Every structure is written in C-alpha cells, then in structure tokens.
C-alpha cells in the first residue's frame, strides 16, 4: 500500500478518535451534558428555534418552527417536570408547513421560576395567556395541545379564553375526578397520610427511582443504560425542590379537579387522546370528557401508557393532523353555505 494512503488513514483515524473519545467520556462521566447536547442537536435537526420573550419582569422560553399562515398555529403545553423539548418526538412527524410553538411551563427550564408565582392550575392558565398575548398568538384562533398537567392547564385555558382557540387536544390530561382511585393515586394518598412526600414517584433522585418512574409512565419498556438514567437524574436533581412544591400545589384542593370543574365550559371542538394502559391517570377520564364536552372526539391507543407522545409519536401526530383537517374542512364548508 502506498505510504501516503497509510498516512491518510492514520490521520483520519486520529481525527475520528477525538470526537469518539469525547463522546465516550461524556457518556461515562457527564451523561447530563450529553443529554443537553442531544436535545440541542434534535432541535436543530427538526428546525426548532429557541426564543425568549419578556412580560414585565417575567421571562418565557419557547421553541418554534414555521410562521403563522392560513392553518392555525399549534401551541403545546408539556406535563409536570418536563420541558418544551418533550414534544420533539411529535414535531418530527408533524407537517413542516404548520406553525408550531412549544413553551416551557411556569418555573420549568428557561421560563421564570419565582417564589411568588401562583403555581395552581388557574395561575398557570393565566400565565400561559400572558405568553399568548406577548406573541400575539391569539390574533387568530389557535389549536391548543396539552398533556398530563399541561392537559389540565389547556382545558382550563379553553374554558377561560374561548375566543383564543379554534380547537383543543387533551392528551391523558390530569384534573379529573374519579369515583375510585387507581393504584398510583392510592399510593400518593398513602404517602400524604404518612407525611413521607419526600418520596414522590414522579420526582426521582436516584437512577433506580428514575427507572421506576419510566416504567410507571410508559407501557413500552425502554432499555435505558445506567449512565443515561444517571444523566436524567443529574439534570433533574437541582430542580427537585421546585418540583415538590409544584406537585403539592397541583394536587391540593384548588387544582386537583380544575379540568373537571371547567370541562362543561369548553366550547371548542375537542380531541382526547389516551393510552389504554395509562397507570398514572385512568383512561376512563376520556369518557368523562366526552360526556361533558359537546363536540368531543376520543382516540384510545392500545399498548400505550401515560407517555403517549414518547411512546406513540407517529400515531399521535397523525391523529392530531387528521383532527385538525376535519375541523378545518368543516369550518370551510360552513363558510361556503
């Protein structure tokens, strides 16, 4: 073999070795940094841009793709202790001609965290309305999506500000009242009674607790390496005191049944998507919503738990796009009549 060719392979091998070694070192030593890089890369690949907007002394962080057009903007509200990037798996399967906005909920990620903030569902809905006003998203009615805690907030938002939205998607939303508690809720009540709320299942502080939370929230059993579990925990631990405060706020009497108390005020066409094997919030809530909201479509997903967006992103995206198309076409037909 020619010496120049050998030298080329040596140089190329050395060049490749540097990023490979850096990756391995990050994976083993700083998995939380690797997770942040992963989200940055995924946002970039999907064309999602991060921006900040101020409302007086309050800052909202959000990501977006596209521009407002003749189709409604889609605003997405994430769940408890998550962030705007949880929607990326769904964004991947949504058409690129849609204007998408994913906001960090109050106190989460890049949005202001204040000890004076009202973290109740009512308070969060009002904060999101401030965000909507800042970006003038309600210049034309938009489609609102919320999951879990974000679904509770989205439903209350739809009841409070009906002229802002043209349609609504609730993905396994919290905030409903049930005649009987599921196993997860019974466990929470036991923790409350025993005053041991330091061990809330949705606030992990070790890789083992993180693994248990993933199993609780997902029907699909993801095989997550120990280093990644550690990274996920490392990212969350600095925020666990806030998560604990928020959790206690949203399960108290003021917020626990907020969606239930406001669901009959929702007038927008509504879509409910729920995993049939949801262990966190019982799927029977879908029937409760369907009976209370006059124009409501229910889509139940087989072999799917609470983390619908992560477990079934392609299917969820298709359901949302089809729902929007049906609502949009109906509105167009009414205009022609």
Automatic annotation (TrEMBL):
It catalyses: Hydrolyzes glycerol monoesters of long-chain fatty acids; 1-dodecanoylglycerol + H2O = dodecanoate + glycerol + H(+). Residues 72-313 form the AB hydrolase-1 domain. Pfam families: Abhydrolase_1 (PF00561). InterPro entries: AB_hydrolase_1 (IPR000073), AB_hydrolase_fold (IPR029058), AB_hydrolase_sf (IPR050266). It comes from the Eukaryota. Signal peptide: none annotated. It is a single-pass type II membrane protein. Lipase that preferentially hydrolysis medium-chain saturated monoacylglycerols including 2-arachidonoylglycerol. Through 2-arachidonoylglycerol degradation may regulate endocannabinoid signaling pathways. Also has a lysophosphatidyl lipase activity with a preference for lysophosphatidylglycerol among other lysophospholipids. Also able to degrade bis(monoacylglycero)phosphate (BMP) and constitutes the major enzyme for BMP catabolism. This is acylglycerol lipase. It comes from Pipistrellus nathusii. The lineage of its organism: Eukaryota, Metazoa, Chordata, Craniata, Vertebrata.
């Amino acid at each position: 073999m020619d010496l120049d060719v050998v030298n080329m392979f040596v140089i190329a091998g050395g060049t490749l070795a540097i990023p490979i070694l850096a990756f391995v070192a990050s994976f083993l030593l700083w998995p939380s940094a690797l997770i942040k890089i992963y989200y940055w890369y995924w946002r970039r690949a999907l064309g999602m841009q991060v921006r900040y907007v101020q409302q007086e002394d309050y800052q909202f962080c959000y990501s977006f793709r596209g521009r407002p057009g003749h189709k409604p903007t889609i605003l997405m509200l994430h769940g408890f202790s998550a962030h705007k990037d949880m929607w990326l798996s769904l964004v991947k399967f949504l058409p690129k001609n849609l204007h998408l906005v994913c906001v960090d909920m109050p106190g989460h990620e890049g949005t202001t965290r204040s000890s004076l903030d009202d973290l109740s569902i009512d308070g969060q809905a009002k904060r999101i309305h401030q965000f909507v006003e800042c970006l003038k998203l309600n210049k034309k009615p938009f489609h609102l999506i919320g999951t879990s805690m974000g679904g509770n907030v989205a439903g209350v938002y739809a009841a409070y500000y009906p002229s802002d939205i043209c349609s609504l998607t609730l993905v396994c939303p919290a905030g409903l009242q049930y005649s009987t508690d599921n196993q997860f809720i019974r466990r929470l009540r036991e923790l409350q009674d025993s005053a041991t709320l330091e061990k809330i299942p949705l606030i992990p502080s070790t890789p083992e607790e993180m693994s248990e939370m993933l199993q609780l929230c997902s029907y699909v059993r993801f095989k997550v390496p120990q280093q990644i579990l550690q990274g996920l925990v490392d990212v969350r631990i600095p925020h666990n005191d806030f998560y604990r405060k928020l959790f206690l706020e949203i399960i108290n009497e003021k917020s626990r049944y907020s969606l239930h108390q406001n669901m009959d005020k929702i007038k927008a066409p509504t879509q409910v998507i729920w995993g049939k094997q949801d262990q966190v919030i019982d799927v029977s809530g879908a029937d409760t919503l369907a009976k209370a909201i006059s124009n409501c479509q229910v889509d139940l997903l087989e072999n799917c738990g609470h983390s619908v967006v992560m477990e079934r992103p392609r299917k969820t995206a298709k359901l949302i796009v089809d729902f929007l198309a049906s609502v949009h076409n109906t509105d167009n037909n009414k205009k022609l009549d």
